[in-house]
Specification:
7-stranded mixed beta sheet, single chain, 5-stranded parallel beta sheet, alpha/beta, 4 domains
Length: 524
């Protein structure tokens, strides 16, 4: 028997790779997963019947292959002949690949409405920010005038060279708008000044944002005929909808894991990779340890697809990578993540808030909290992702998201203190009353966000070293140290499998995924 293909990590990229190998008729692979469940950052946490989606995963992609792939795993629970989906001005009609039947039970993909807003100054703003009456009313005419003057200055005399994320944002929005909507939230996320973050992050995530387009759109709406047409367009394009598994994103990846295991793949949960052994320029074997009983095994391999953090891969390489590569990899920066799941009786949004139901719950899937006096970064309302995420109706099930660094004060805070801290912050900005909290839990996610500062400037050296090994393929968010969305991670895995099946050692198609794609966040 020939050595199997081995996949490190059972997140979206790793499980997609295993599924695609089997679909092509390759021998069953081995999947090694450090955690106790599959899904990676896309897993679903079940806390007393209330489910948590870590980070929020809308199932919408501009890739037809990805959209069809998802539906082949979980059929669409919708009666429409064609499902109209929309996401930040990207609208598409999707003909369901497979429709749910009674036999599918709860294994279905729902069609869900999408709403995300910014909470700043105790007011809600559209996300992405739109130049509309609500924005003007919230900001006030004096600040709007300062924003306009600041933008004009940035267009006349842009910063050059454009090296930092601050340069990138100021050049596109002006300093006033940058200070209002970008700086504080971005620094919450990354924990460093925007001056220290590479402009490459902005180019990847928000490269198409344009005030010019927003101004043109606003001007067109002032014309009677254009306004009428715009209203009709809004009725179809801004009522945004996306696919979502009934019990959260982990439901889909758990089903994928079941399917590949039925076809002979081995999914080794709670196993740590302790050594990746290479000889004669190729990976020869991988040593793993079962964290439950300490049992160790060596697995001879044909190919390795790695989604583990590139920092950790370098540290277990044997013989060791060159010191110059290892030093850079060890210093690669990450941001870690905490979600406080909080069950409350009701919410208390600000007066005159629109889109609020009887218990004060806004209709948002998540809210970007840009209040500078709290550390809270985002607030998920799990009820609005899927009613099935909440086992304690009619209560409101919230996810308070904090960005931090492993070992810092927030990360190390005992769970009870962390819950109290989060509840007091949410009360401080007027969204709940502390006395309405009924239950809560804390989930910590290490290395959730690969960061674009510090040693990242030398990432190309690390990439070149690993890419030179013909049977090693780096994919996924952490495997590539790239801020990929779920669909981009899947596409990188698809490219790796295509290379393996064709016998190619060319890694360029993997790294090309997402480089030229428009990101969802790019539209204003």
């Amino acid at each position: 028997m020939r050595a199997p293909d081995l996949i490190i990590g059972a997140g979206p990229a790793g499980l997609t790779a295993a599924y695609e190998l089997l679909a092509a008729g390759a021998p069953p692979p081995v999947v090694v997963e450090l955690g106790s469940q599959v899904g990676g950052i896309s897993k679903t946490i079940d806390y007393r019947g209330n489910r948590m989606d870590l980070g929020g995963h809308r199932f919408f992609s501009k890739s037809d292959w990805v959209m069809d792939w998802w539906q082949n795993i979980l059929p669409v629970a919708a009666d429409e002949a064609s499902v109209q989906l929309a996401y930040q001005n990207a609208s598409r009609a999707v003909t369901p690949v497979r429709r749910a039947t009674a036999a599918d039970g709860d294994k279905v993909m729902l069609v869900r409405p999408r709403l995300s807003r910014i909470y700043y100054g105790r007011r809600f703003y559209d996300y992405p920010v739109k130049l509309n009456p609500n924005t003007i009313r919230n900001l006030g005419l004096p600040r709007m005038a300062r924003i306009g003057a600041s933008y004009a200055r940035a267009r006349i005399a842009p910063r050059a060279p454009e090296q930092s994320l601050e340069d990138f944002l100021v050049n596109r929005f002006g300093n006033e708008l940058y200070l209002t909507f970008f700086r504080d939230y971005t620094e919450k996320v990354w924990g460093v000044s925007c001056r220290e973050i590479s402009a490459e992050w902005g180019a990847q995530r928000i490269k198409g944002l344009s005030i010019t387009k927003a101004l043109a759109h606003a001007a067109r709406q002032l014309l009677p005929r254009a306004a009428s047409a715009a209203r009709k367009a809004t009725e179809t394009s801004l009522i945004e909808r996306f696919f979502y598994p009934k019990f959260g994103p982990g439901q889909l990846w758990e089903e994928v894991a079941r399917r590949i295991e039925r076809q002979g793949a081995r999914v080794l949960l709670n196993h740590r990779v302790v050594s990746v052994v290479h000889r004669d320029g190729c990976v020869a074997s991988v040593d793993v340890v079962d964290q439950r009983d300490g049992g160790a095994m060596t697995i001879s391999v044909r190919n390795v697809i790695s989604t583990m953090p590139i920092k950790e891969l370098a540290e277990v390489f044997a013989p060791a990578a060159p010191a110059s590569v290892l030093d850079i990899a060890r210093a690669m920066p990450y941001r870690d993540f905490i979600t406080v799941g909080m069950l409350v009786d009701r919410m208390t949004p600000p007066p005159n808030s629109s889109q609020v139901n009887g218990n004060g719950m806004p209709a948002d899937n998540w809210i970007y909290v840009q209040e500078p006096e709290v550390k809270l970064g985002r607030l998920q309302i799990f009820n609005n992702w899927s009613p099935a995420m909440v086992g304690a109706h009619p209560k409101v099930w919230l996810g308070l998201e904090y960005f931090c660094t492993a070992g810092d004060e927030l990360w190390s805070m005992p769970d009870a203190d962390c819950i109290d801290f989060a509840a007091r912050e949410l009360q401080k900005i007027g969204l709940i009353s502390r006395g309405d909290v009924r239950d809560a839990t804390v989930v910590r996610v290490p290395k959730a966000y690969p960061a674009y500062f510090g040693a990242y400037a030398h990432m190309s050296r690390v990439r070149e070293y690993f890419d030179a090994i013909p049977n090693l393929f780096l994919v996924g968010r952490n495997g590539m140290h790239r801020y990929n969305n779920q669909d981009h991670s899947m596409l990188s895995a698809k490219k790796a499998v295509e290379a393996i099946l064709s016998g190619s050692a060319d890694k360029a198609p993997i790294w090309a995924v997402n480089v030229d794609d428009e990101y969802h966040e790019e539209k204003v």
